[in-house]
Amino acid sequence: MGKVLSSHVGMKINEWYRMIRQFSVPDAEILKAEVEAEIERMEEDQHLLIYYQLMCFRHQIMLDYIHPSKYQPFSVSNLVDKIENSNHELSDMLHYYHAFFRGMYEFSQKEYLEAVKYYRVAEKQLSMVFDDIEQAEFHFKVAEAYYIMKQTHVSMHHILKALEIYDQHDAYSIRIIQCLFVISGNYQDLKRKDRALPHLKKAKQLASQIDHPRIYSSALYNLGKCYGELGYREEAERYLTESADLARKEDLPTLPHTLYTLAKLLFRQNEQSHALHILEDGKLAAKKHEDQLFCHMFDYLDALYVQEINEKQLQKTIDYLEKLSLYSYIEDISLEIATALEASQQYQKSNQYYQKLLWAQNQIQEGECLYEF
């Protein structure tokens, strides 16, 4: 049997990547197997072998997003080591893919500053990317990271670019839904929750038309969170509960976050018994999914609402968030702690947390200047 042309395998990897971007797991798995069979008979091409390794990396990120506990044939970190320890110099496009995919991996690990660092490296090669869907992918992932970091206007700039491209193509409904999540989240951060709600209703309607439990659970979660911030407590509790039930049924890693938001809503409504039940459920879920962030966030809820302001534990949570540069979380909980202390007439301590809130806001603003020049 003769050698397979590397150009032929390269075209098949491109098609494989197209299926990955569409979250089409069966098609992606088939193409991955075909590529692996052909690589065994392929003429020597080191660039293409690195492209294949990068695509394995991206393939695993897709699988981890859809259902982490189901698809874990090997460690993504091992793939990272294998690619980065290669002595072969990367071409511009491979350099782009390496930085972009590494940014996605760091984001999945909640290392948001690291993710942005790699995205900025990828951005330097973006002029080499002529595929408009790949351009949209880049803008979406950058917008997602900046949204988490509360760099609202930067996030909105990128997400609208991404959505404009996705809207022109069929088969990208999941990304369109995710764009709507980010747009609505940015509107909520801009204190325009009224403008956020229509996007979330549209996202839920689109999510109900596809077979993707994680996306539908996220649509329910985002609606519930928004209704809670608008003061519609019954609607908020209903959607958050539905989201948590689906996440539990499908064993989704989003469960701890959903239970955290639901528990906080219930504590604020003085539904102590129900809130305590959700809090304990959330602690177990965070441990099961090895979610260190929400292990700390549940400890925070316990310290604030159950232990009636355990300042030592509250400070431990803030120290953890500072270590990860999660200033948006520090901003939110500092306000909650300050308000609780003020309500108990501990004005001096309350003022300390208001100062912490202002410090966190300043860190967020400083984060808007991430340029090296």
From TrEMBL:
InterPro entries for the chain: Bac_ResReg_Asp_Phosphatase, TPR-like_helical_dom_sf, TPR_rpt
Record-linked SUPFAM superfamilies: TPR-like
Subcellular location(s) per record: Cytoplasm
Keyword terms of this UniProt record: Cytoplasm, Repeat, TPR repeat
Residue ranges the record marks as coiled coil: none
GO CC annotations on file: cytoplasm
Pfam families, per database record: RapH_N, TPR_8
Keyword check for Repeat: yes
Residues of the signal peptide: none
Superkingdom of source: Bacteria
Major place of residence: cytoplasm
Family as reported in the entry's similarity comment: Belongs to the Rap family.
Protein name per Swiss-Prot or TrEMBL: Aspartate phosphatase
Source organism: Bacillus pumilus (Bacillus mesentericus)
Taxonomic lineage of the native organism: Bacteria, Bacillati, Bacillota, Bacilli, Bacillales
